[in-house]
Amino acid sequence: MNDHIQYLSRVTKTLADKDDFHGTDCHSCKLGKWIDSSGREDVVAHAPHAEGLFERLVERHEYFHSVSNEVLAKHQVGDTVNCYRAMTEMHKVSGQLVSLLLDIDRKVKVAA
């Protein structure tokens, strides 16, 4: 979760011209690497009933990267209005991601 917060911080700093972050795709960050490697197996092995939550996490994670990259692209071309619209969506999806991660964590702990 800390990496996710740092990702958001880098986007925000870039918008304030205090960083030059270009974003990443959904497979390059730590969460994406976990999803692509052992994520599904980790979740299903400990909480088979959480597989649906994992699927939703994958979808929201992909969308988060799409929207955050849109934020950065709009900023780069000076499209302030659409940059901030996309940023609002990015923060909404970020909250959904955090919620899904916490839900999955709870399901795994209950099953343990």
TrEMBL record:
InterPro entries: Chemoreceptor_zinc-bind_dom. It comes from the Bacteria. It holds the Pfam family CZB. Residues 4-72 form the Chemoreceptor zinc-binding domain. This is CZB domain-containing protein.
